[in-house]
Design goal:
Layout lengths: L2 H14 L3 E2 L24 H4 L9 E9 L15 E10 L4 H15 L7 E6 L16 H13 L8 E4 L1 H4 E3 L12 E11 L26 E15 L2 E15 H8 L12 H11 L7 H19 L8 H21 L7 H15 L5 H4 L1 H30 L3 H5 L6 H11 L3 H6 L6 H24 L7 H21 L5 E6 L4 E5 L7 H16 L4 E7 H6 L13 E8 L27 E6 L14 E8 L5 E7 L1
Parallel strand pairs: 1-2, 4-5
Antiparallel strand pairs: 2-3, 3-9, 4-7, 6-7, 7-8, 8-9, 10-11, 11-16, 12-13, 13-14, 15-16
Length: 643
Amino acid sequence: MRTKQIIDQYIKFFEEKKHVRIPNSSLVPENDPTTLFTSSGMQPLVPYLLGEAHPAGKRLVNVQNCFRAQDIDEVGDNRHTTFFRMLGNWSLGDYFKKEQIPWVFEFLTKRLNIDPGRLYVTVFTGLPAGRQGFDNIPKDTESEEIWRELFRKENINPDARIFYCGADKNWWSRTGVPEKMPTGEPGGPDTEVFYDFGSELQIHESSPYKNQKCHLNCDCGRFLEIANAVFMQYKKTQNGFEELPQINVDFGGGLERLVAATEDKQDIFQTSLFLPIGETIEQLTKKNYRENSRAIRIIVDHLIAGVFIAANGIRPSNKGQGYILRRLLRRSFDNFDVLAGAAPPAGRQGISSIITRIVEQYKDTDEYLVKKFELIKNIIFEEEQNYKRTLSEAKTFISKKYNKTGDELMGITEISAEDAFLLYSTHGLSPTQIKSMGFSFDEQEFVDKMEQHQKISRAGAGKKFAGGLADHSEKTVKGHTATHLLHQALRDVLGEQVHQTGSNITIERIRFDFNFNRKLTAEEIKKVEEIVNSKIAENLPVHFEILPISRAKDIGAIGLFDEKYQDKVKVYFIGGASGARGPTAPHPRSASPLAYSERNEDYYSIEFCGGPHVDFTGKLKRFKIVKEESLGKNNRRIYAKVE
């Protein structure tokens, strides 16, 4: 079944279950410096899973473009990709297991026509007694019984289809297993669905798992996880876990894997989505897929991911998203050049043909790729030229390091693993490319260095995500409210033509970007500070309302208008005609049955925002601008702190 067919069936199915479709969030998170890419469908929804009201309601559905940098080195097998689409549906304090599990089963078997006889599931085994106070979460027998009944109705023995797994497989929280969760962190058990490609596939002589017993989470390729429903039910406390006041469902289904299941293709790169791209590479390089599958899979995946990242305006660089894009492109160039031989077909035309095929394959679901095709091509071609210069620089590095030039340089056949890793980490060279230049090295030592590098990178990535969109720490929440006050204060001092162009909020400081054509004077900076601090001293009330976007604009709400807004949006109001209020005062909303947006009150700030915020500005205590600088033509940046 084609990807668009699956997407259409999925959205239609859950809209019939009274879900509202929400937009696909940007692959590069907007105004969130703590995570490089959107890596799951739930990532943009964390604040709502934690209790924030969503403008679209309690039942949501969407298809989210995702990228996981930590999977780069896994690509090459039959199922791993860095870029993928996640089908998601959510219940925000509405339905739970008895609705979600039958819906998943119905969608898979009735709408996608997947044979139920090919499905297996895992459920959570519970936390055993005596596990450091975490023994109050029982075995998930409720999910088991629901699955049992579903299999029985299909005349399938449930004993052979349902398996229990521990917290390392069937528990979800932002920080991992229960022991790693901080106090106050939400999480819960999940249930996963696997598709069975057939037992005969695991005994192939070339399989490293041929002598091992196969199981659902085996890496042999027989079973493929295609769906996962998380039941976010608990909150960590000092004494174990307690039930959340709002229990949620977070479902994710990998689109590419569902295509593989509907087409019964154990190798996802042989499905209708990826196959035409791989065939283009075969035609260009004159190499067949069967004997070169790993290299072709890497080229396909990395160029697809590169196309989508470039479409977001990211350019290759030595840090952040640009560094990831550079790694992807250069690894794809390496593998393509090795397959094509010493003279790649028609130079640029080879990569261009692959990019063209990728856009053709994705245009029905991501039509903006067609509009941005020239931008994408130019970014990738520019990096190709930069990479050629890098190869020349690498030879210069080796020449200086080993004091060899000309023919003597050509005689160098072995370099240290340390130098090889330096070429990899600082010049973007892969081991394949280093070897293709004629240099050998201790590969095990290189692997050890790479694993250490990846361990550090993954730890950093985990830290980024844990503190990112889901960061509701007191300091960060104060920072969100402070940016609203700063935004309006800048407009008060510099004029209403000023508007926000970006922000970056951490527990240490606030970074706020805005349009302006010159450096601020010391007097202007002082005035902005005074205004913000005066609004803090007034202890103004802060609240939000969910409004139609047209109404929000009518009442003068400001914000990042280049973001993707829905029909209804969350708008935060600061202040009001009622003036200052302390924490014990009645909420101004109770003064009238009319919504704030319908009353004739004078608010200091009205702004689009997902939150969270403090309820009174007095909780900020004090605001200080640390630095103001240029970001280039007509764009400025302010660094500030709030107590």
